[in-house]
UniProtKB/TrEMBL annotation:
Coiled coil: none annotated. Keywords: DNA-binding, Phosphoprotein. Pfam families: LytTR, Response_reg. It comes from Hymenobacter arizonensis (Siccationidurans arizonensis). Transmembrane segments: none annotated. This is DNA-binding response regulator, LytR/AlgR family. The keyword DNA damage does not apply. The modification 4-aspartylphosphate is found at D55. GO terms for molecular function: DNA binding; phosphorelay response regulator activity. PANTHER family: STAGE 0 SPORULATION PROTEIN A HOMOLOG, TRANSCRIPTIONAL REGULATOR-RELATED.
Amino acid sequence: MEVVLIEDEAVAADGLVNLLSRYDEDIQVVERLDSVEDAVQWFAHNPPPRLVLLDVQLADGLCFDIFPQVDIRCPIIFTTAYDQYAIQAFQVTSIDYLLKPIAYADLHRALEKLRLLTTEYAPPPDMSLRQLADVFQQLQKPYKTRFLARNNDRLQFKVTDEIAYFCADGKFVHLVGLDQRRFLVDYTLEQLETLLDPRQFFRLNRKYIVSLAAVKDIRTYAGSRLRVQMLPMPCTEVIISRERVAEFKAWLDH
């Protein structure tokens, strides 16, 4: 799938490229643009890609200034740090509207929505606003705010504001509270990644999903990686790979 990425922040653009590759290694970012002017010139002289990832606020104005000047006949996923432009986004061929920092779970849902629209409905550019809204409502689901957790023979609910991080240990996943208490939950980290609010939680690596409240210190580490100190202290050193550093920084900077 060919994708055009229109984003004026280099860190955010790099993070999106990594997320797209994580979803499908065959996705090809054919062009990266950072302004309304460059976008108008590109679409005026090139065939439409399969998908456009479009930041709302660009270097020289709002992305909506593009549409009166050039006809973009392909699906669009809007990305922004603000939510006041959602209605305008759905007045063009929008598939989704993602708030920064973009989490993998959100982008995954948007790309799956594109796949659903392509296979089960009319091609996205010809869909009505009502059809788009209906599909959006079907696929959008609220994030979990509490989890049923187990400590020995005791079951209790833990709300997300009380959670420091989730840790995978072999076949088990532990919920560790800000109060240092540990519980077992019946979810994999992959399942949790789609259930948790990406503004509050981040998948650090294969073993940890951390809450923003638990991140206490970050240090540079060998190989352009990062070492994260969390409270409560985990039993192992927590390292973020070079490929995930840009996405992690964007999450922290939100």
